[in-house]
Amino acid sequence: MKLLKTVLILACSAAPVFAEWPTYHGGADLCGVSEAALPEAPQQLWRYNAGGAICNTPVSDGDQIFFAAKKGQVIAVDLKGSEVWKKNFTRTNDAGAEMPVQFDAPLICADGAVLAGTTHGTLYALDARTGAEKWRYETGGVIIGSPNRINTNQVVVIDQSAGALHGLDLSSGKLLWKTDGVERCDGSPGVGNGRIVFGSCLAALHVYAAAGGSHLRDIEIGGDAQVAGGAAIAGNLVFAGVRSGSLICVDAEAGDIIWISAESKEQTFSTPAVTADKVIYSSDNGFVYAVSRAAGRLLWSFNAGGLPASPVVAKDKVAVSSDGVLYLLSLEDGRKLWSQEVSDDISSPALIGGLLVVGADDGTVTAFGTKE
C-alpha cells in the first residue's frame, strides 16, 4: 500500500508539468517542447467564443487556460472550455473617451498570477483564480514581446521601443533593475542557463545575466539579420530567426555564431522549437524546416503554404499553424499526419496536457485532443 501511494503521488506530481504551458512557446526557455502525447488525428473537444479576435497563443498553469481578446479582455477558462472569469480593461484616450486596452503581447502565467502587457506600456498582474488585479507596472514604452519568468520571484519585460529590460518582483511588481536600451525589439526574451537573451533591429542578439540584469555581451549577426521573434535557449546555445530568412545558432557563453541555416530567403520571425537533436522553424516562404541541432543540416521540409507561425513539438509530433489551418507533422520525417481548417487566421498552438489549443481571429479558442 505504501508503494502504491508513492507511485500515485509521483504520477500526480508529474502530470501538471506536461499540462503547463506558461508562455506562448512553452517554458521560459521558449524551446516549445512538451512531453505530452497527441493523437495522430485529434478531434475537436470544445470551442469557446470570446467575441473578439484572439491573436496570441493561449497559456496555461495546468489548471486553467488564459488568453486575451481584442476587445480589451483577459479571460480564463477551465480545461473543458468553461469560463472561469473575464476581466475588461479600458483606458482614456487623448479626447477623454474610454476605449478598450490593446493586448498585443502574449500572456504568461507564473506562481498564481497572469501577466498581460499592453501597447501603452502597462504590465498587469492578475490573480489566476479570480482575475483580480494584483499590481500594475508602467514601463513608459510599448510592450509587444512576451514577459518572461526569471526565477521563482522575478519576471522580466522588455520595452519594445527602447529595447530595455525591466526586472520586476513577481509578488509586488516593484522594479528591481533596468537595463539601458539597445534598439527597438519586436521579439520576446528567452530565459535559460542563467541568462536572458533577445534580438533587436541592430541585427544582433543581446545577452544579459538573469540575476541582476548585467549586460554580458552582444552577438552581432550583421547584414539583413534583424531579429523580431523569440530567442530559444538550450544550455549555452541560442536559436533565433532573422529577417533575411535564416535561422541562427549562437553560443551565448563564447559569443560565437555556431551555424546558420539559410533554407529560406524570406523573413523568419517565428520562434523555433528545440529538441535534443533537432530544431524546427518556419518562415514566411510557407515552409516548415527541421535541421540538425548540432550543425544546422536540413533534415526535412514541409510546405504549409501561407505564413506558418511558431511550431511546437509534442513527443514525436510537430504542431504548427499556417493562416487558418492547424497541422500535425511527424517529427521524424515531416510527413503530414493531420490537418484541420479552424478559421481564417489562428495563433500558434499551445500544448496543454493532451490538448492542442489555438486562438482565432473569429474570437474563438478551440481545443483538440482525444475524446473520452
List the helices and strands and how they pair.
Elements: H1 2-19, E1 33-34, E2 43-49, E3 59-60, E4 64-69, E5 73-78, E6 83-88, E7 90-92, E8 98-100, E9 108-110, E10 113-117, E11 122-127, E12 133-138, E13 148-151, E14 154-159, E15 164-169, E16 175-178, E17 190-192, E18 195-200, E19 204-209, E20 215-220, E21 232-234, E22 237-241, E23 247-251, E24 256-261, E25 273-274, E26 278-282, E27 287-292, E28 298-303, E29 312-314, E30 317-322, E31 325-330, E32 336-341, E33 350-352, E34 355-359, E35 364-369
Parallel strand pairs: 1-29
Antiparallel strand pairs: 2-35, 3-4, 4-5, 5-6, 7-8, 9-10, 10-11, 11-12, 13-14, 14-15, 15-16, 17-18, 18-19, 19-20, 21-22, 22-23, 23-24, 25-26, 26-27, 27-28, 29-30, 30-31, 31-32, 33-34, 34-35
Task: Give a summary of the structure in a few sentences.
By secondary structure, the chain is mainly beta. The chain is 5% helix and 45% strand.
Please describe the structure with a list of short key phrases separated by commas or semicolons.
372 residues, mainly beta, Methylamine Dehydrogenase, Chain H, five-stranded mixed beta sheet, four-stranded antiparallel beta sheet, 1 helix, 5% helix
